[in-house]
Amino acid sequence: MSKSLKSHYSAVVVGGGQAGLSASHYLKKHGLDHVVFEKKTAAHKWKNERWDAFCLVTPNWQCQLPDHPYDGADPHGFMVKDEILAYVDRFVKKVDAPVFEGTSVTALEKVGNIFRIESSAGTVTADSVILATSLYSQPFVPRAAERLPDSVTQIHTADYRNPSQLPPGGVIVVGSGQSGCQIAEDLHLAGRKVHMVTGNAPRCARFYRGRDVVDWLADIGQYDITIAHDGMSKKKHDTNHYLTGRDGGRDIDLRKFAVEGMALYGRMTGVSAGKMLFEPNLKSNLDGADRVYNGINALIDRYIAEKGIDAPAGSPYVPVWEPQGETIELDLGAEGITSVIWATGFTPDWSYVGLPIFDGTGYPVQHRGVTGVEGVYVLGLPWLWTWGSGRFLSVGKDAEYVVEHLATRLEQTQPPVKQAANG
Fold first, then answer.
1. How many CB atoms lie within 10 A of CB 203?
2. pTM for the complete prediction?
3. Are 310 and 169 part of one and the same domain?
């Protein structure tokens, strides 16, 4: 691949993760000259922002990157970190995208009928732009972190690797989404005293009525539902269900962890005088997660009944623990807490985009990745179009649609520019 930067391209892709690489794959198929700007390295987050015991939450068969489906011996298993990295690395090599790594995009504007993109590698123009930087650009840590004592070690989930990197003592995990719950389990299994700050994240069974729940949901058609269906437009803001593929896959039940000694709290409201403060909503958070869990299983029950499928019997989840009152403040020093892990998610970085493509919340306004500014596209967002849009399952389908739209537009406005054989 040549590393020389041209002055003009048919398309510029911002972001060299799974979405940007998928876009490059289809741009190559259309023979469109393009460049991918990646501020770190291709597939950086998979390689550098996952903990040691990380594994897939969805079964391996859902790994469906473009022309790169999972082809291993365990389609219903869950790849562990090294296997995921190998799968992604093979995809990176297969696509062989024209990536400029270590290249930040600092400005994007429209000048006449073309786009001007300023980057640390130089300034180029393009007929179209694909923004594939997702919503997970910058780790988010609440300002309350500034008020924690200096003696408390603080890290974000992006920097967590294993329990041994933390000093001896108790650990607070703030946030009960997928990463927070899995890291809390990792610490709990290592014998650490864990304090878990919950939120409104839902949970899901791993297996139900003889099969992985993901398999049932695929058969039901849940992964084919789009945001165009009634009531689905708000899905883009949903929190992922917590469960795990660890050790062959299992539920994550915070109530069970509580029985085993994990301390649970409601949503964090702040930090004051060495104390962490909480809303008295632990019970409602746990009940809400279980309501979703049982609701998904009830959906499967109805499907089995309607189709007359012979499957083992199922039953609703019955809580194994209930909170006896609500803790609204926790003295970190008195409880021997020496570490806080912020499982508080990420924020996007659209600061370089000087185009009117956002709504009042700063989220791109788009339909299947096509924005209101002709020639500008977005990829890799959760629920861009379907449940799998931001993941291995459907990011390739979204990229194919976007690039097809892009290519058709170019064909209608100008003669196609073929990419050189050397990429």
1. 26
2. 0.94
3. yes
